[in-house]
Structures are given as structure tokens and as C-alpha cells.
UniProtKB/TrEMBL annotation:
Organism, scientific name: Planococcus maritimus
Alphabetical keyword list: ATP-binding, Nucleotide-binding, Transport
InterPro entries cross-referenced by the UniProt entry: AAA+_ATPase, ABC_transporter-like_ATP-bd, ABC_transporter-like_CS, ABC_transpr_LolD-like, MacB-like_ATP-bd, P-loop_NTPase
UniProt-recorded name of the protein: ABC transporter ATP-binding protein
Superkingdom per UniProt: Bacteria
Family matches, as Pfam families: ABC_tran
GO cellular component, one term: membrane protein complex
Sample GO molecular function, one term: ATP hydrolysis activity
Record-annotated ABC transporter domain positions: 3-223
Amino acid sequence: MIFSTSNIKKSFTTGEVSEEILKGVDLTLAEGEITALVGSSGSGKSTLLTIAAGLQTPSSGEIHFDGQDLGALSPEKTRQIRAESFGFVFQSSHLVPFLTAEEQLLLMLETAGSPLSTKQQRQEVEKILDEVGMGHRKSAYPASMSGGEKQRIAIARAIVHQPKILFADEPTASLDSTKSREVMELLQKLTKTLNIATLMVTHEEDLLTYADRVLTMKDGRLA
Ligand SMILES: Nc1ncnc2c1ncn2[C@@H]1O[C@H](COP(=O)(O)OP(=O)(O)OP(=O)(O)O)[C@@H](O)[C@H]1O
């Protein structure tokens, strides 16, 4: 397994009340597979995804990536692993308004510490933009893109540095059903062809056909 969590617990304290939101979660992700995470509102899906992605820390438990225990590494090393090997797509595309499609991806490569030359980076960006069907829009700014186009660029940006793991928190929530299916087809294609382990939180049951595995969160545990 490329990625796993072991006995992840997370409590939040509000005032004097402490509530355990995750009660010991074991999650595994496999390369080339989309794992969908479903469950009722407030069951802890986003909390689990953000902990798995290293965006917040668990109260206890371990996270293993590529044979390494992330909790045992220095913050600098985990930050480096996250930048190089993890990709993120959120509900809303979160594109930078003053950058073109091409520039959004180039910025990501720079942030991930890409070893490619400037020319190679441009070639790589062009290839990925073609892959997500946005090659013809490389000079477009977010304001001129439709919701589906923005999400395609967000996905392209999330995978341009060739991550091993892709975390997607309701990636189709802002799209109508046709566009949602198109975006899911794209995620499925990229997961398979690039051999990425994708974890996706979703509320939309009709999109579960795109998942290789469906995990249900209930009362802080995976059922
Ligand atoms: N930083 C925080 N401080 C306090 N409580 C929090 C915090 N983050 C999440 N929670 C609580 O943890 C619970 C689970 O939240 P989470 O967002 O993980 O649920 P979810 O399953 O993703 O829900 P939804 O489907 O509505 O997005 C909720 O009751 C939420 O209020």
C-alpha cells in the first residue's frame, strides 16, 4: 500500500466540551484507484481527508506514505513530501485570479521544487493542459472560464508535479450533473494512466460508479 493511516483519532475542544470526531480510523489507498469517502454531514469525512493530507494533525495515530511514518519525520521533511508527492483539489477551484491557466501550473511546479528546466516545465504544462482538454485555453484567466473549465485547470494543477496521492474534497460540488460526470471521467482517466492513489470525499451517490472502492464514515469510524 502506498498510503495508510492507522488508528487515527481526532478530538476538538470547544469551550469546556471535548468531542471525539475520529475514533480510530484505518484507511488504505492504492495506486491507480479512486477511493470514495461518503457519510452523513458532520461524520468527519473532511477532517479525515485533511489529516491524511497533512493539513492538520491527528490527536493520535499514524500516517504512512511510501514506507515512511510521516509523524516521525521533521515538519520540514513532511512539508517536502507533501509538496512533491501530494496533490489537492477542492470544492471550489481556488485558482489565482491574476494568473493564466499555464501560469497556474508553472507556479505549482515551482512550489513543488520541480527539477525540470524552464523549457521542460513549459512542455510538461502544455502536455497536462492537453490531457485535461484545456490546451486551447492556456492563456485564459480564471474570470473567463466556466466552472467546469476552472475545475479542469484545478485538476491539472493538482497533478502537474506528478503526485503519488491526490486528495479531492467534493471536487464536483460546484458543477451541474453533466459537468460533474465529465470531471469524474477526467479524474478516473488520470488516476489510472498516472497510477495515482486518489481519495475523494463526495455527497453525490451517482458519482460512486467512478470509484474503485467506497468507504462509509459513520460516527467517526469507517464502516
Ligand atoms: N476545527 C474544528 N473545531 C471544532 N470542531 C470541528 C473542527 N473541524 C471540524 N469540526 C467538527 O467535526 C465534525 C466533523 O466535521 P467534518 O467537516 O469532518 O464533517 P464532514 O463529514 O466532512 O461533513 P460535511 O459532509 O458536512 O462536509 C463536525 O461536527 C464539525 O463541526
